[in-house]
């Protein structure tokens, strides 16, 4: 049954880009009836532009549906989801054990559905006269951002960049001043790829005081652009003309791209010991050819809803946004990395099984 | 004063009653109630804000420092709420004071030029332009600060840092991105310039003509006339104008949020980044991702800002009231 629905969805996507798979997904269950009603969710602001694109696509296919996504932040999204005020939520981190217990209590018999619906590469970007690209190992990146490496012509940087003309200028680190999922995911990368050089526990607030900072992605990018010798981290689609770092993975250096970022998620194993509907990944930061600095943002939904209309809406919306079409729409709008077919196949059965009850 | 108090008691009971009987009907009565209602409404709003702040801040005020450190992202361990708010209060006051110090002399200059030096037509145009400045939204000032003023001011800040670095305010190192309190202070100064100018101009224009002409008749130059007649008359007006400006500078959020690279120190270094932060910008920065006790803590800092603003305004009133009798306004 689930396989049949999947085939239907994909077939619908392939045939007509203007009418995404969502409608036919709703239809496959209800025998041709269209969806209607209002669907409310909220959470991570990193997903905002992707959610906008999904919403536009889904509402075009289902004119009677209104989807709301409130970008209140990951914490607010998780709280709203576990107390039932959001039918679905976005979060830059997977639910921890306590939150999962609360969410399961809220969702009831169907359990919780959780999957990495939005994956976006984080670029390490810098502003240095005459240098467009640098090769940096994880330890060196961690050293720069923790303030251990203070000048651009430091031996640790020069060793991997024999051709670059590195000036004897101080490095100015610019980080996010607000609480952000980008910061949390970037720190998670540093913490896992260079545990000796970065011993701070990853969280949304930058742990080091006394460094330059700015609000939001556009803030750090414009701060980096306005100062010479700056380095920052930001969503890769937003870095405009800043130079970028090719990140050391094993023995090679990989520049960022949506494909390489999608690949690291595809190559990472699924976390074990979770419920059927929960697909959280344990990122492997050292797979050759992949770009390991990524923001992985999860989508949360319930397996059962009290109301049939709500269940159909969530099912339709979720299957649209994991569909090839939906992922491409997000990639176009937000520069995200589309989900691999394997993850889609693993996630779709539990989405298709969303029911009322 | 005393002579005017004694006669009314005889008339006082009769006069209001007669007025009420003859005129306080229909539209008059309606208008009176509208006016009273408006007056009461403003008090009610103020009280409602105060109650809201107290109510929402209460959990943070009563929580222990361990509890706060666990649930508020930027809360350092083993600090009381006061120690935590302290640097924010310091940053807020420093930014506002610097802005005021920059804006007040310029505003007085503009106001004097408009009221006493400029030809009438030019004065009118200038007056409009200054009022127009007040209508620019603060987010525009923020963008202007980031993209225009910041890069333009950087050489100035570097010069100040290298030549006047011995002075605590200009101690280095100078930030290469210009996202520092000095830039914020200049932007705030520009923002509060119109309101100070507008009030000061009105006050200077009200200088009695006789005073001015007397000064000129005694052989004073134009500058001496301004110094002896106009400035003493306008002093209390200028002070209350400055306090109005200070009120805006204290609460300004967007421009500070966009420009400043914040820090939480008691630091006078206005050319270095990550030194100070203002309360309003701090709340705007952290509120979007805050939940639970963190929200209460942010509102508690808002309560502190509310109290500071009230205190500043009351202080200004006290100064104005004390100086009133010397100003010649009565």
From TrEMBL, chain A:
One of its GO terms (molecular function) is phosphate ion binding. Residues 29-324 form the PBP domain. InterPro entries: ABC_phos-bd_PstS, PBP_domain, Phosphate-bind_PstS. One of its GO terms (cellular component) is ATP-binding cassette (ABC) transporter complex. Keywords: Phosphate transport, Transport. Residues 21-38 have a biased composition (Low complexity). One of its GO terms (biological process) is phosphate ion transmembrane transport. CDD domains: PBP2_PstS. Residues 16-53 are annotated as: Disordered. Belongs to the PstS family. This is Phosphate-binding protein. It comes from Krasilnikoviella flava.
From TrEMBL, chain B:
Pfam families: BPD_transp_1 (PF00528). CDD domains: TM_PBP2. Belongs to the binding-protein-dependent transport system permease family. CysTW subfamily. It comes from the Bacteria. Residues 1-22 are annotated as: Disordered. Residues 89-316 form the ABC transmembrane type-1 domain. The keyword Translocase does not apply. Keywords: Cell membrane, Membrane, Phosphate transport, Transmembrane, Transmembrane helix, Transport. One of its GO terms (molecular function) is phosphate transmembrane transporter activity. GO terms for cellular component: plasma membrane. The chain crosses the membrane at residues 30-54, 88-114, 126-157, 177-200, 249-268, 293-316. It is found in: Cell membrane. GO terms for biological process: phosphate ion transport. Part of the binding-protein-dependent transport system for phosphate; probably responsible for the translocation of the substrate across the membrane. Residues 1-11 have a biased composition (Pro residues). PROSITE patterns: ABC_TM1. NCBIfam families: phosphate_pstC. It comes from Krasilnikoviella flava. It is a multi-pass membrane protein. This is Phosphate transport system permease protein.
